[in-house]
Design brief:
Uridine Diphospho-n-acetylenolpyruvylglucosamine Reductase, domain 3; FAD-binding PCMH-type domain-containing protein; oxidoreductase; alpha+beta; single chain; 5-stranded antiparallel β-sheet; 28% helix; 19 strands; Vanillyl-alcohol Oxidase, Chain A, domain 3; Uridine Diphospho-n-acetylenolpyruvylglucosamine Reductase, domain 2; flavoprotein; 13 helices; FAD; 24% strand
Length: 455
């Protein structure tokens, strides 16, 4: 077990261990007591027991992609899982067993090439499965296929006392329930996910895309919002406010990605959108050959490394006037690398969810991804996000854990009953608050957790 101690390590080595794997380069000024670079379950058990011996907390890093760098906590033992990457596949039963630091691109690169299977992991290729699934997992085609965490059949964990357990619907059911939507407040360390896989489309993915000028903003946005209910359930639908790479003007980009098994099925699924689209596109394509690998390339360009990020989000009320509520967010971006996103959630949002912690969503998911390079832009970019969210908040019902920063804004993340149940589970399995949990302002939430109130 490799341990990098704050007070005795080479400063550069400690700094790399502290934040070298943090995706957001707006780095936190929080300093763990030590970083453990785990390579096996035994290392994780030893790290938890070391924290008990030192009477300090444990933080966990899977992919390092949380915008607020939840894994970097003062006076903690940080268990970094970056070197603990393992997976096995039972192709016949479509099950994979995967460690938390494996990314969606790593897993799907292997699954698609070798087995023509896939898992609906995170869109951004560098996101580790650990935090992504704990937060619920708004993965590929969430609107039609449901939340990625619904495909978690079991988990292996190390508890706050250093005990290794297996959790599913038959044993340690409360931890299994919490693992699907509790986010960083999960009161144990996940060491392995048992995942239900999906057949990858035989002919690959197909996509249609439409770029509109802002003069067509309301017409095009209303078109896509009204088109979504009843649209093909194997098709992902997203609207993005962005600066195209070849333009100095903000555009509204509407993208359909369909995961039908044949080209003919894909064309039939995408045709109703193409036939009803408003006139006036600046650029468009219909039913173009695509792939998961190419989608990851596009997502990586939109989420570049070595940049500073400020992100926030909301589930809008089902009857909200979406184009009007989001007009400022989509049309007044503070930086040409920033973008605003609306993600269609219907019909997933209209069905009863399984019995799991994740319990708040709506027809309309909205997120701001503010991206910049220069530290001197911090105040301006963060202030813009805060101002936009202040005006969006009255039209929201809650937020998604994965694109949240509890230090800046808290709202409702679970139903009232699920929030209370989660608090009870946290107190049962981690009564002393050994696992760091939710990073709120001042890092004081402890075993109490978040207030879970949409004020």
């Amino acid at each position: 077990m490799q341990i990098i101690w704050r007070d005795s390590a080479d400063p550069a080595g400690y700094e790399d261990a502290r934040v070298g794997r943090v995706f957001n380069h707006r780095r936190p000024k929080r300093y763990p007591l030590a970083v453990v670079k785990a390579t096996c379950v035994e290392d994780i058990i030893a790290a938890v027991k070391l924290a008990k011996e030192k009477n300090c907390r444990v933080a966990v890093r899977s992919g390092g992609h949380s915008w607020a760098a939840w894994s970097v906590r003062d006076e903690s033992i940080l268990i970094d899982l970056g070197n603990f990457k393992q997976w096995t596949v039972d192709a016949e039963n479509r099950v994979a067993k995967v460690t938390p630091s494996v990314t969606g691109r790593e897993l799907n690169g292997m699954l698609v090439d070798e087995y023509r299977l896939m898992f609906p992991g995170g869109h951004c290729p560098d996101v580790g499965l650990g935090g992504f699934l704990l937060q619920g997992g708004m993965g590929w085609n969430c609107r039609g296929w449901g939340w990625a965490c619904e495909r978690v059949k079991a988990i292996d964990v190390v508890t706050a006392d250093g005990e290794a357990l297996h959790c599913n619907q038959e044993q340690n059911q409360d931890l299994y329930w919490a693992a699907r939507g509790s986010g960083p407040g999960f009161p144990a360390v996940v060491t392995k996910y048992h995942l239900d896989l999906i057949q990858y489309p035989k002919d690959g993915l197909r996509s249609s895309g439409y770029f509109y000028p802002l003069s067509k903003y309301h017409e095009a946005f209303n078109w896509i919002v009204n088109l979504t209910p009843g649209f093909d359930q194997d098709t992902e639908i997203v609207a993005v406010g962005l600066y195209p790479r070849d333009s100095d003007e903000i555009h509204l980009f509407i993208l359909f990605v369909t995961l039908k098994h044949t080209a003919n099925e894909a064309q039939a699924a995408l045709a109703p959108a193409h036939d009803s689209r408003p006139e006036g596109t600046i650029k468009e394509w219909f039913c173009k050959e695509d792939s998961l690998a190419d989608q990851y390339v596009s997502q990586k360009k939109a989420n570049p490394e070595a940049h500073r990020y400020c992100v926030d989000n909301a589930y809008l009320q089902n009857d909200a006037d979406v184009p009007k509520v989001l007009e400022e967010a989509f049309t007044k971006l503070p930086h040409r690398k920033a973008f605003a996103l609306w993600y269609a959630m219907d019909p997933c949002s209209r069905r009863e969810l399984p019995d799991m912690a994740l319990s708040v969503h709506s027809d309309h998911y909205f997120a701001l991804y503010t991206v910049w390079e220069d530290e001197r832009d911090d105040e301006r970019c963060q202030g813009w996000v805060k101002d936009v969210m202040k005006r969006v908040h009255p039209h929201a019902v809650g937020a998604y854990l994965g694109d949240s920063d509890f230090q800046v804004r808290q709202t409702q993340y679970w139903s009232q009953s699920s929030g209370e149940r989660l608090r009870d589970i946290r107190k049962k399995w981690d009564p002393t608050g050994r696992i760091c949990g939710y990073l709120d302002q001042g890092d004081v939430s402890g075993i109490r957790g978040l207030d879970n109130v949409h004020a």
